[in-house]
Amino acid sequence: MIDARRFCVTTSALALLAAAPAAWAQDAQVPEAGQTAEGGTPASAQESISAPADTGEASGDVIVVTGLRRSLATAAAIKRNSEGIVDAVVAEDIGKLPDTFASSALQRVAGVNVTRGGGEAAGVTVRGLPDLTTTYNGRQIFTAEGRYVAIQDFPAGTVAALEVFKSGLAPQIEGGIAGSINVRGRKPFDFKGFELSGSLNGVLSQQSEKIVPNGNLLISNRWDTGIGEMGLLLNASYVGVNFLDSTREQSLVIATTNVTNADGTVSNRAPGAASGLRFPDAQGNFLGYGNRYRPSANAAFQWKPTPELEIYADGLYQGFRSKDYNRWMFIPIYGDLTLTNVETIGGTNQIGSATVTGASRPDGYTGSFNGKTDTYQAGAGAIWTKDRLRLSADIAYTDSKYSTSVINIDYAMASSPVRNVQFEAAKDGGPTQSFVDFDITDPSNYISRGLWQERLVVSGQDWQTRADLSYDLDLGFLKRIDVGIRYSDRKAGRDLGNLYINNEGDRVPLSSLPGLDITTMLPGFTYNQVQPNVFFAAPTRDSIRDSIVDLRSVFGAPEGVPAFNPAENFRANEKSYAAYAQIKYGFNLGSVVLDGVVGLRAVKTKTKIDGFSRVVDGVDEDGAEIVSYPAISASNDYTDYLPNASARIGLTDELQLRLAYTQTRTRPNFFDLRPNLSLGQPVVLAPDDPCNDDPTTAACVERLRRGGSAGNPDLKPLTSNNYDVSLEYYFSRTGSFTAALFRHDAEGFLATVDDRSVEGLRIARPVNLGKTRLQGAEVTFTSFLDFEGLPDWAKGFGIQANGTYIDAKGDLIPSFAETRDGGKEAFPGVSRWAYNLVGLYERNQFSARLAYNYRSKFITAYTLETFDPVAHAIVERGRGQLDFSTSVTPIDNVTIAFDIVNLLGNPLRRTRQYSETGDAYTRQVLYLERAYSLGVRFRF
């Protein structure tokens, strides 16, 4: 079964508005990036820097900083003045991108890559590393039992700035070997006075053919009272999406024609064709439809009873709601089959197309998936500043829960039709198929195969508190000392229950199941006509849900939702104690200014996880296992010392050089640390599956293994030593050119190893790998055409360009490494090349942006497959995405915006080599949504 895919679409007009208050109200106010983390100064009330108007001469006129110019100027100021290596995307910049979610805006940052699905950018990595600390206003935030929060859970309209810290500082919260991303929400003191802004837009997704509303509203004000100045801000957002992703895929198992078996029979018969021709032994179509929305709200209060003291409180709510409808059709090309009309791909022994007769019958499922997340965070603190001393304290509580409910109706075709198959289509590659004299839109051609039910509840809670002191020194080259402490008490839990009942042997017509409305709605693959199978009969999502009581009765399932399985559940508690000290230094060497910081963060971690083990005590008189679940517990206790050192060398007023060294580490996820083992459902074969006749073949032995998973309480934290060199040239307020070299020497990445030591089982366990090295370079250029002599209209053009090169190699798991040369291999998830090219235009009441993002091919995973003794890689091919946004302001304070996401509509393509001579077939072709957005934003 395929897990429900958690995707959500991204288009932008919603984001355009909430950025507007900061842009329209005043010069952009942002905290100094070197202090946006937890230490020293919480993000809610930090010292601010502003991006003043660019006073560069241009035909004697002053260039006024508005909109995009202001955001680029502020981002440049953050990077230039930071004590570490930082890139930022600030409010108006997010609003002007064709992006609804913060993760989509991050993909424009040099060194940041994302994965895509459902129109959404997710899976954020920085310089090839996936393990990031995520903070909100300097506080750690997470979803449920996980370590991090999904950045896409932040609608861009509620975000004031995104700060990507590529080199760490001692005051920053530990936890990410890749660095950290701080999401900064808006505060009332960001504005001069009363602010009211909002947006409303509709998003049309082309494949799903649905329109959903999006909206945002912000209200903020500040007052002078008899007890000091106060400010209050309320911000609410609703981001919805209705998407359909269409996938054509085929098996990683590459079979061979005319194979003579030990008993003299011939398998995979291809009369008239040569022996030894290769072909994938199955194809499939997946249509993943999602109706999802994310409600979000935040509130902030600030009070300055005296000029020296600020007291603040703020809260955040993030919600996620998902009603997915997933349809999967699996088309075997194995069994007692015959291949005719065989055509090979020129110059190879690969079959390009054939007619398949006698293969096992196709099957699949129709799934109804409901998901729900509620995350709350509330905190308060105070900052007191007097002369050279700054004291701050902060406390926060986080509560997050994610739950899912899955109901799938499994089906099988009533017979196995002849099919004409292509293994590499002329357009986009990959598989297609058509059935001969068999109507896949007719419900009577399907029988019931089974009922799958699952429910999951995962949760996390956290108390975190800290205290920080910063003191400006008067000791020559010693400029400032920062010290602080932090305590965190984290809890996490997981409960899972599922049940599968197979009834294919009863040959119950699918159409006879009670309450099901079987239709051919929601065709996929609308971008082209490559795949003829865009319609097939399936129960509707709602009819599955509405009929579940009767369906349980028909299938003989217990009443109610499945009980939680003790072996799947755990409870975790983790306490961490941190202390840090950091010195800032600075001095002049002639005309050269040199400053920097040296620090150390010490963190003690205590972890305890409780669960239940699965023990087979024997078998009963019917041969069924007698199972018990004794309690089991695992503990860990360790201390990390994380140094950092950096230098900033001001060569001229415009040119500076940075050097940085940091050591970072990431704790394993609680799920990976759990002490228990759980088993999946037993394997159920189709009646005509060849493994029913001979289960002893190597392929059948592997297919019949019952899957399971186990944690590993002995996992070590992931660690990395990081080295950075950056040269930065700032030639105007909005213009800069930077170049950087970096290297990460990491150790302990997690990988999953399949344990086959017990007959009939395949247990997946996480293990620490050896060493991985990632090294590379980044180049960025940003500027508007503010050149003397150009006409005014031409000065509205701007460009943002960046490129990243990464060479990443590391150890494979031992069983994979044994099949290769044993050396280091390309690290999964890392593209060697990536770049962004963004064209801007902003003048008076009109603005436009055309943004192209490209990443080269990368490995998604290494796998070992039947008939292939080498662990080859699944490779996602290089792909570029083009997004467009434009806006016009016909009257003051009202702007109309139009956006297109995924303008090109080009698919994701994955392939896997299966031989040492380089032969490969396309694994998957995934067509992502193209989305259009039209809306209005206002500010009064």
What features would you describe in this structure?
- This protein is mainly beta and 940 residues long.
- 7% of the residues lie in helices and 57% in strands.
- The chain is built from 10 helices and 54 strands.
- The strands form 11 sheets. The chain has a 22-stranded antiparallel barrel.
- The longest helix is centred in the N-terminal third of the chain and has 15 residues.
- The radius of gyration is 29 Å and the shape is globular.
- The N terminus is likely disordered.
How is the secondary structure organized here?
Blueprint: H1 13-18, H2 20-25, E1 29-31, E2 48-50, E3 57-58, E4 61-62, H3 67-81, E5 86-90, H4 91-96, H5 102-106, E6 112-117, E7 120-126, E8 133-136, E9 139-140, E10 159-165, E11 180-185, E12 195-205, E13 210-225, E14 228-250, E15 254-256, E16 259-260, E17 266-267, E18 278-280, E19 282-306, E20 309-332, E21 335-344, E22 351-359, E23 363-386, E24 389-413, E25 419-422, E26 432-435, E27 446-475, E28 478-502, E29 518-519, E30 538-539, H6 541-546, H7 548-555, E31 570-589, E32 592-612, E33 615-619, E34 625-628, E35 631-650, E36 655-666, H8 670-673, E37 677-679, H9 698-703, E38 706-710, E39 718-730, E40 736-747, E41 750-755, E42 761-768, E43 771-784, E44 797-810, H10 814-817, E45 825-826, E46 833-843, E47 846-855, E48 858-865, E49 868-876, E50 879-891, E51 894-901, E52 908-913, E53 920-927, E54 931-939
Parallel strand pairs: 8-11, 38-42
Antiparallel strand pairs: 1-2, 3-4, 5-10, 6-7, 8-9, 10-11, 12-13, 12-54, 13-14, 14-19, 14-53, 15-18, 16-17, 19-20, 20-23, 21-22, 22-25, 23-24, 24-27, 25-26, 27-28, 28-31, 29-30, 31-32, 32-35, 33-34, 35-36, 36-39, 37-38, 39-40, 40-43, 41-42, 43-44, 44-45, 44-46, 46-47, 47-50, 48-49, 49-52, 50-51, ...
